[in-house]
Each structure stands twice: as C-alpha cells, then as structure tokens.
Amino acid sequence: MQSRPIVLGAAVLLAQLLTMTAPAGAQNKPYSAAAAPSGAAVAAPLTLEQAITMALATSPELRSAAQSVAIAEGATLQAGALPNPEFSFLREGMQKASRTQTYQLSQALELGGKRGARIAVADYDRALAVGDVAVGRAGLRADVITAYMEALTAQERVDLARASLKLAANASNAAARRVTAGKISPLEQTRSNVAESSAKLELSQALSELTLAYRSLTVLWGSTAALDRALVMPDIERVQVPALETLQAQLDASPQMQRARTQIAREEAQVKLERAQRIPDLTVTVGSKKDYETGRSQTVVGLAVPLPLFNRNQGNLLSALRRVDKAKTEVEVEQLRLSQALFSAHQRAELSQQQITAMRQEILPAAQQAFDAAVTGFELGKFGFIDVLDAQRTLFQNRALYLRALSDRYRSIADLQRYVAAEGNSGTLTTDRNTQ
User: Which single residue of 27, 69, 198, 258 has CA 20 to 30 Å from 180?
Assistant: First the structure.
C-alpha cells in the first residue's frame, strides 16, 4: 500500500513530462513564466523580430558606424573648398620720406583637376563608411538571432532542469519511504540522493547560463538591465535554406563584397589625385606699390609657378598604385573567405536539419517510449524509481540535444544571411508564429 502514493506521483509527473517533451512544432506559445525572469508573466513576450528591430534602432555599435558617415560627409565638404586668398603687406624703409609700401593679394589656382580628384576620394570614403554600416547591420542581425536562440535554449534548459530536480526529489522521497519499510536497500536511497544533488547543480548551472544569455542579448541593443520578457520560439519549420549554388551566386551582392569593391574604386581615385598633385599650381598676385619719395603708386601683378624638378610626387603616386593592387588582392581574399564561411554555414544548416529530423522521427519517440515503459514497469513493481529517473534523464538529455539542433540551424541560417542578405530582407525569415 505504501507504493500507491509513489505510483500516483509518477503518473502525475508523466503527464507533465508528456506535455513538456512534445515536439517543438507543437509549441506555439511563449515558454513558461517559471523559467522567465520576474515580470515576464505580465509583460508581453519578446519575439525575435522585435529583438532585431530594437537592436537595429538602438545599438551603440551601429550608431558609431553611422556617425562615421557623418564624419565622412564633413570631409567631403572640406574636399570641395577652394584655397583661401592671401593678403600681404610689405614696407621698405622706416623714414616716411623715403619708404615704400606694397599691398598684395595672392590667389592659388589649382590645376590638373586636384579639387575634383579630392572630392572623388572623399565621396568614396563616405561610400566606405556607408558600406561599414551595411556590414554592421548584417552582422548585428545575425548576432541578435544567435543571442536570442542561445537565450531561448538556456531558458528551456532551466525548465528541463527544474522538472528533472522535481522528479529526482520525488524519487529520493520514495526511496526513503521504501528503505524505512524495508522493501529496498539503503543503496537505492543513496543513489537517489546523489541524483537529486546532481539535479540541483544542473539547475544552478542552467540558471547561471540563462542570466548570462539574457545579458548577452540585451547588450546588443545597448541595455544592461535584466530582461523581463519571455521569449518565443521562432517558426523554424517555414525557413527554407536555398541551394549552395544559389547562395554562392548571391555572394557578389553581399555588403562585404560591395565594400571591398568600393575600396578598389577609392584607391583608384587616390591614384588620380596623386597624379593631379604632380601638376604645379599657379599663384596669381595683384597689388599696389606706393613710393612716398616720389608720391607715385604702381600696380603690381605677378605669377608664381613651382618648378617640379625634384619633387614630382613620385613616391605618393607609387604608393597609391600599390594600394590599388593591394585592394584588388583583398577582394580575392574576401571572396575566398566569404565562400568558405557560406559553405560552412550551409553545411551546418543541412546537418542540423538532419539532426532535427532524426530527433523527431526516431530518437525522441524512442526515448519517450523508454520512459513510458519505465513508468509502467514501476507501476507493476518490475522496476525501481531509479530506473524511471534514468529514463527521464535520458529523455531530457535528448530533448536538450533537440533544442541545440534547433538553435544550431537557426544560427547557421543567421550566418548565411550575414553574407547574402540584402538590406530590408528580414521578411525572408518568418520568426514570429503569432503574426502568421
């Protein structure tokens, strides 16, 4: 008769576990408020798209990149400025009767298209700053997806750890009562106590990882406050990974490649500027000279042209030409790097999808059946509660692996979009079930 409460307890726990261990495709609601921070029960859940929007709007790193564009605009304005005229005054002699005074106004005239070449270089510098913003937005979006999925996985791990601890505690209590009744060996109670202590440690570690994961997510939108909203599992099922050949064809349009090609254009514009610098500028001078001894005034007109005998800007021109070669080589390096990163992300997406399929079709159903059989055997007196605990732990471990596979797939898709996603394509990933 003493085993009846234990059997009833196991049945209740089994019902809870059946709900908890259902496939992710059936989870259309936010995670439980018990795993979320305080206040999550009353606050609206935070979807992935909302987290991305917040980060893009308030990220300090992105704001810093945008400020670089404003700095480049100032440089463009300065590049178009004309040289200032120069006024000079010259007095010869100190006695009024014999001195002369000359007033001159000089203006440098830039020849060889220097001003236009400077403006072109400044425009390309601004384009590079804009490219940095585009690369930063793509990277930030991928980082938010990664951090969100890490936090979501950590949140679910806390749920699993709490359920594991609850079952371990029930097993420990049941073992203690059976030892008291003389039905099992004290060794069974020791094993159950060890299992309960391990479950407590796992819960403590899961809570710590959850805190760190929440902090890593909120930092991306420039906040250090604790996250007080529950997270929502994105709709992984609707995300389709294109073929690798299709992604490779889109690689040339990536923000990284566009910026690399802009760098080549910028260095070529710098070559034109250095060539223009080889042409000497002309300085025109006009003025008036007054001779106090004779009382006459004379008009002064002059021209000044440097003679490019020694300094023909040959060193700067050579450096500019070499920088063009370097920029072209860096485009090749960037192409190889992005191709490898794209291939790696695509392989991880395909592998994680295979793992998800295997988990859903084979591993999780088998683990669930093993757990059901352990509970049934316990009800019939064929198994001990430790067997139920072991089956439960195996089920939870596979459930955690399943969540990790989901997270890996979404993070790999985020990495794909880091390289091939154009601006404003966030709709390619439907991540909020509540909006469908």
Answer: 198
